[in-house]
Amino acid sequence: MSTATLNHVAWVLRGNPLTAVAAVGVAILCVLAAIGPWIVPYDPIASNVAIALQAPSALHWAGTDQLGRDVFSRTIVAARLDLMIAASAVSLSFVVGAVIGSICGYVGGRLDRMVGRFVDVLMAFPLFVLAMAMVAALGNRVENIVIATAFINLPFYIRFARAEVNVRRNAGWVESARACGDSHLSVILRFLLPNILPAMAVQISLNLGWAVLNAAGLSFIGLGVQQPTPEWGIMVAEGARFISTGNWWLVACPGFALMIAVLFFNLLGDGLRDILDPRMRT
After folding, report:
1. 74-96 pLDDT tens trace
2. DSSP secondary structure string, 98-130?
């Protein structure tokens, strides 16, 4: 990374310190997801009805649930599954969507129109409802949640990649690559795709937050991950039944973790936009 780029990143971070906070927050979430099962004070699936529904205390920082399981431990361990689902789904939709969109933007013609109409029809559906239907049809396994979440994210990457490649396909450096004998596929993979990746990084960060919400939402309505696996959406759904009896901590800890994760990803996306936008360098 050049000195000019580092200076630009530092300038953006000074003007928007929330971006640095978000980057640190995302890093902490990833570390907790990686080592969470080994650092939590209690087994996240071990029940003990003798201590069920205890309020937060020095022994149980976020209280216990209706089965006596430690809410804090379950919340920390759940970060791995939720972030894994979100990262896998966004990676899959990014790779497939970027390739399809780039080919359509480069080739144009009938293929571009056909894929464009498919994307329009797909986006006409409420995307969460479409994910619900896919998981209900395929079965509520983790891999099916990833597939459904990736599928409903495809239109964003296809449209973005198509538009960016369509603008660049007749640029001088693309013409030079073709004149040097590079095949059309080589031009797309070696020149066009790497050129649009920085701009797509913003969409990736934003979609990560949305994918976390989608996975938690599916679990909340009973179509996602099932018990006794720790997962933020399940924990919120179970805790909601006890709010009326004053057991607020069952929802507070996983709900706060879910909110913080989505917030950090959104703030990071805004910061990446400022860092990668060429107009910010003037």
Report:
1. 999 999 999 999 999 999 999 99
2. HHHHHHHHHH-HHHHHHHHHHHHHHHHS-HHHH
